Amino acid sequence: MNEISEFVTFLSKERNDSPHTVKAYEHDLGAFAAFCQDYYGGPWSWAGVDRLAVRGFLAAEQRRGLAKRSVARALSALRTFYRFLNATRGLEVNPARAARTPKLEKTLPTYLSRAEVEMLFADAEARAAAGGFREARDLAMLELFYSTGMRLSELAGLNDPDVDLVSDQVKLRGKGKKERIVPVGLHATTAVRKYLQQRDGRLAGSVRAGSRPVFVNLRGKRITPRGVQLAMKRLFDGLARGTELHVHALRHSFATHLLDAGADLRSVQELLGHASLGTTQVYTHTSVERLKKVYHQAHPRA
User: Fold this and answer.
1) Has 248 been annotated as catalytic?
2) Gap between the Cα atoms of 147 and 253, Å rounded
């Protein structure tokens, strides 16, 4: 449908939403359009959709096993789409507005303990010392993840001008292509320097200096997010609960350990690139839960 195509263009070009969000919203609207075709049993229009159709769609999505978070995202896609139709087509109805957002399960982020971090880095450093290009690269990526709290997509998208090893800082492009400057620790800058010495001889093809990728695969091409995940999985496998850990656990660990050490919430919010302070507050819950556990284990009358 033309409206969906125009909406997708609006999200990517004007709202600067991340490719992941754009793709998810496009998928959700396509699924809703297919549902309406069956629901109305013939021709239908966006203006003619009622709230019962929206509720029916959300219920159908849940019945087929979609997680509540994904159903909530689909509802958000519909609400945003109807606001777009109001602005561009003058459509005054928004049947998604009255639909209830599914109550999401509150899950605390998975993070590594200080002891696990020490084990992880000791193993990665030993591999880098004994290995070659791949091991040096994996250590550099691990160090940057934990040193900056950057997202997977942000690391994979890094270009040479983004990393300033003289000023010990990195420029990141987060959700909505918003840029932020984040400091980089000494261990990370050292690991990145050692890796770059090996990388330069591997770069494939003629790449403009400004768009030269920081992290590349064994063929000298920009490493994909999947390639980064596999690299970190190799390192996580050395930990007892390695199979449970994902790349994002490093971002969670960065935030949790900063707050544990006394960093203020707003500073951590800026470092993580969160638009809302409420998103960052989940890490305070993590700290409180851990304090409760320590209290119950240690207090004689707990």
Assistant:
1) yes
2) 10
Residues of the chain with CATH 1.10.150: 2-89
- Spot the catalytic one: 15, 27, 248, 290: 248
Q: Give residue 169's identity as a one-letter amino acid code.
A: Q
The sign of the dihedral angle between the CA atoms of 31, 275, 164, 235 is negative
Tens of pLDDT, residue by residue over 17-44, are 878 889 999 999 999 999 999 999 989 9
Spot the catalytic one: 73, 127, 151, 173. 151
Q: Which of the residues 79, 134, 180, 274 is marked catalytic?
A: 274
Told to judge if 27 belongs to the known catalytic residues of this protein, a careful annotator would answer no
Lowest mean pLDDT among 68-77, 86-95, 274-283: 274-283
| Banded pLDDT at 284 (limits 50, 70, 90) | confident
| Annotated catalytic residue, options 127, 173, 199, 251 | 251
Q: Which of 51, 134, 175, 290 is catalytic?
A: 175
pLDDT tens track for 160-170: 999 999 999 99
Residue 251 has pLDDT above 80, yes or no: yes
Tokens of 152: 């997977």
Just give the CATH number of 114-296: 1.10.443.10
- Note the CATH number of domain 2-89: 1.10.150
Residue 246 a catalytic site member: no
Which CA distances in Å does 68 have to 58, 63, 218, 232? 10, 11, 39, 28
The reported pTM is: 0.71
83 is catalytic: no
Structure tokens at 238: 């050395």
